[in-house]
Amino acid sequence: MFKVGKIELQNPLLLAPMEDVTSIAFRKLCKEMGADIVYTEFVNSDGLIRDNKKTHDKLKITNEERPVGIQIYGGSIDPMREAAIIAERENPEIIDINAGCWVKKVANRGAGAGLLKDPPYMQKMVKEVVDAVKLPVTVKTRIGWDDDSIQILEVAKRLEDVGVQALTIHCRTRNQGHNGEPAWHWIPKIKEVVKIPVVVNGGIMTAEDALRAKEVTNADGFMIARGAINHPWIFKEIKEIFEKGFVSSFVDVEERIETALRHLRYELEYKEGKRAIIPFRKYYSGYLKGLYGASKIKQQIMQLDEYKPIEELLQNYKEQLKQHQEIEED
Ligand SMILES: Cc1cc2nc3c(=O)[nH]c(=O)nc-3n(C[C@H](O)[C@H](O)[C@H](O)COP(=O)(O)O)c2cc1C
To answer: Span 51-62, mean pLDDT?
Structure first.
């Protein structure tokens, strides 16, 4: 059972924090597709205390997406405490601390997974944050820095001891980055040493993976990152497989294209014109992956910077695909 503050959910599906991906728009889309809890991308504590506008904007949440967690990161205790207080003013359901980011510019400066190099310090930082806010505090971390330093059992206990209300474990080491098999087998071991909910993360790319993760880990929640990019239906599919043991709904071409457009329209609700349209270009190849004639459409779409012509292009493409399918079926 995932019980954190007022949230009480059985087998919840969590949309992972992802930099430049988990915008309000994407969180809303995933929510509609069945995600139970969503997270902002990580927000830099130093940027928050300097009142940097771009950093501050990342804290924005909407009622539609609740329950939502705001994730903060940093390597120093005072800015992290202050950042948590600033984040709390936005009134999310959860304040999450990033102790898992592996990229050098974060981890080598003692933030993110860098905290795993010094568990007593990490515990101290987390305690200060827990004590500074009224909201529940959770931590997202990894099993260790590298294969020779897997300290997650000690870390989990330390964090529970200072009042952390749930843990998300990306079941890889810092040195693995996003590669290699996730070591899900750590989850049952962690659950033996702590009473707080433990969420499994890493390697859930399909509904079948989620079912396997459930069987192997008996985790209290399932967090999905890359598996949701260009595939937000994954949440529906996981719900189905958890309930019935198989996925019966099939996402057809029409729904893929309609979802891409819906995602873009949601981005446009929160960002103006090109500020939404240009970063969105990174999603077309995923949404259109494997479709007949997609490479030509992708080339054309990259030239467009307004919604209407993009919609027209994709709607026409959808019709072409239907006709192509009918010819194939004849
Ligand atoms: C594009 C991208 C951005 C990410 N940004 C964050 C982040 O801001 N905070 C965080 O805790 N993890 C971040 N991660 C890591 C994911 O939350 C997750 O732990 C990791 O991708 C493993 O899960 P997966 O196998 O389901 O992708 C990011 C991952 C990706 C692919």
So the answer is: 96
